[in-house]
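Let us practice reading a record.
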Amino acid sequence: MRLQKYMADCGVASRRACEKIIEGGRVTVNGIPAVLGMSVEEGDDVRLDEKKLTPQEKRVVLMLYKPRGVVSTSSDESGRKTVQAFVSELPYRLYNVGRLDLNSEGLLLLTNDGELANHLMHPRFGVNKTYRVVCDGTLSASEIATLTNGVQLEDGLTAPARVTNIRRSTTGGTAFSITIHEGRNRQIRRMLEAVGHRTLRLKREAYGNLKLGDLRPGEWRYLTPEEIEGLKACCTNKPD
């Protein structure tokens, strides 16, 4: 088994994140500094920062309503509250599937299943994510078409998106839903900036087959086996 997969099975992080940890020189196998591409076998002594790693038998996936003002990391140098504060009493080492930026809110998945997390975040599978957005001003027909067909950003043209449920918001701006299958940093905010609008509120309401439902900010729940199987099914094919 590849070392990065073993580490993901131990709940360290996704496989790609584990690769970076290995490259950082923090991992040893049987007392020898690990290198990327190394394989491990049953009985090998694998350590991260000198702490022995063991695979976790029970795999869990949680849905959390991340509130605004909370950081989507395990720790924060500035002392800001992180999503880990809401699940700190659970007996699992959980990490989040992707991120929501500081001022965004809504559905965030946390898991100790590194393989599933890797698939959900991998660009190849392009799992749909739906957001409820409020922006300033009025979106014109041409701006909606640009959001739908692709926006030229500094890191390239965005993939086609789906924009629905457009209406005037109570704050005087425009409210709408947008579904994307990419995971670029601050993507929706940057898309709106590119067409001349500022994002006032951004809430993720759906991820793959999952909907946020009745969860309130800071609340979480375990996914059912059926929901987890549905998530896995979202990763079986590339998007249309």
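A brief commentary: DSSP finds six helices and 15 strands in the chain.
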